[in-house]
Each structure stands twice: as structure tokens, then as C-alpha cells.
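Progress against Task 2.4 (sequence-to-structure conversion) is shown through the following example record, which the project officer requested during the mid-term review.
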Amino acid sequence: MKYLKIIEDFSQTTALKLLNTIARSAHYELQEQSYGENPRQRYDSYLHKIDHRNRPKIIFLYGGNWRSGARGDYRFVADTFCTLGFDVFVPDYRLYPEVRFEQILDDARIAVNDIMADNPDAPIFLVGHSSGAQIGALLTLNTSLLQSTKRINGFIGLAGPYDFFPYTEDGHWELFAPAEKYPESQPVNFVHRDAPPLYLLHGKEDKRVRRGHSKSLMEKQQAVGGRATREVYDGMGHIDIILSLSRIYRGKSKVLADIRRFVIEESVKGV
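C-alpha cells generated for the chain above:
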């Protein structure tokens, strides 16, 4: 299945603006909340007007090579998840080169902790695309980061890099510096048996982040006795997998159907 192959810089395209323009908004209320003093330390919450405290909560971490992106760019993703009956949170975080990865991860950590604290009774799912999936995987697997990873019912990674050391992009050596911190950037280094379940989704035609990343993380997590499953989608590239969550494709999106099934099944298990 082919989506908008012409898109190279997703966060800057006219297509992205269109997807957000046609996103429906009648069934939820959009609110901006703060988790720090920096203008980038904000998150948008998309909450159904009828409150259900145990409604599944999706925390979506967008990609952009740790250098770009903004929460408002992904209203179409939140809108789609809301149509499934989930509440959604989309945090911003500081970006490179303003800060290095340690500060980026710390921003995401604080935002997720705040959201979980405000929703103590609800199932929590971290969902990330590309570099956002790497951040989400670390928050899920590295038990030193969140106040409690046991609050997370599952992690859903879309086209994420999980096993990419030594780095192949020159800028990454500086982004993830200092050198002693390099191992901490790799989700595969934190697999453990008691981690929340991992659901790793990848496009077969992804040339930006090869599908071997999700295969490596799945196999390493399974090897230690943990739960990890993987889906690979024919004819789908790096951007296609996130576009498949837009209103245009949501009625026929296998990716969306798989995410819905996973969230519902894991929410029931957590009860």
C-alpha cells in the first residue's frame, strides 16, 4: 500500500498541514499544559468531553531525528486515536542542537511522569515514531528513568531506531555525547524480563530506519524472557507508517487496527 511517497521533510510539508486541517475535533477538548519553564516544555492533551478515568491514555512521542518537530504538527495522530476512544497526550521537548540527548530524554521523562501522575487509574501506553520511538523505548525499558515503569501497560514503536551504535550519522556523536553516555542511547541495552510488553511496527520498505532495528529489539527482549512482538507492513516506508494514522487512511489502515487491538488487549490485562 503506497502513501505520500513525495514527502521528504514530513514536519514541514503542505500535506502535513492538510492532514491537521481535516482532523475532526468535536469529540474532544484540546488543552495545553506545562511541565517546565522552557517554551518547549509543554504538552497538548486531547480529552474526551465525557470523562472516564479508566479510559486508555496514549502518550505520543513524535520523531524528527531529535532535531525537529512540534506537538501541533501531530494533531491528526491524536485525532485518530481519539476516534478509537482513547485520550491522547503529545509533549514537546527541547531539541538538538539547543541541548544534547540527555536533556531531550529528561524532558520526555518529566512529561510522562506528570501525565501518569495526573491519571493514576488509567492504562498508559507510550507510542513513538522514529526518534520518538527510541525515546519511548528507553522510557519503557530503562527502569532508572520513570517513577514507575509498572504504570506503563505497553509500548508501541513505529519505525524506531533501537540498535544503532556505532552511529552512522556524524552529528549523532555530538548529540549523544559524552562518550560514556553512548550506551545509554541504545534501547537494546536495557531489555529485561519484567518490562512492559513491546509492540514494534515497521514498514518493509523503510530506508530511513531499517526494519532490522525492531527485529533486534524484539529478539533481545524475547531472549531475556520479556514480551515483544513485531509487525512488518509490505509496501510501507518510514513516513507511510505515520501517515497511515491520518483521517485519510484510518478506515483501511492495518497499522491502526493493530494498535487498537494491542491497546484494548493490554488494557484488559491490566485490570
